[in-house]
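Work Package 3 (structural annotation) set out to generate three-dimensional models for the target panel prioritized at the project kickoff. During this period the team completed the workflow that converts sequence records into discrete structure tokens, so that structures can be stored uniformly alongside our sequence database. As a representative example, we reproduce one entry of 186 residues exactly as it appears in the project archive.
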Amino acid sequence: MNRRDLLGVLGAAVASPVLWGRSADDVRALGRELHRRAAEAPLRILDRRQSELVATIAELIIPATDTPGARAAKVHEFMDLIVAEWYTAEERQRFLAGLAGLDARGFLSLRQPQQAAVLSGLDAEVTKLRESGGDAHKHFFHQIKWLTVYGYYTSEIGVKLELKEEVIPGRYDPCVATGIPSRGGP
């Protein structure tokens, strides 16, 4: 899948209850602000192993090619902030349980093709849920895939190198605080 095709998934960001009713510009601005905040104090809820697991998964979803991938864009730190400050207790538990399940399967010790196969299986589960009318949004892999795409395409790397947009000519500055309150604290 072409990275630009993934932008369609980012467009689905409005499917997240946190972002309902927000314009595309507000969704992008919020993402940039969250990146700024994530850089200030990484690892709010994830431990180092969980963070490495998230970074590995995100890199498999958006790998480095001619542009840096999700790991370089620090998508794992972005996700840590979202899970810690925006997710409800139920969403947070589902996310952490999904990570624990992958860790129990030895995901980090697998070779990259095996890791990709595991993620393909999880993606097939999401597709099956969606096709059967189930709530695919509640599946762990849907959560992490959406956060990867949202985090990547609102990061400095995603904006400047992948999308080739100059938000403000000269240097990258995250937008000022949007005033959008966090959802469900820790």
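The chain has eight helices and no strands.
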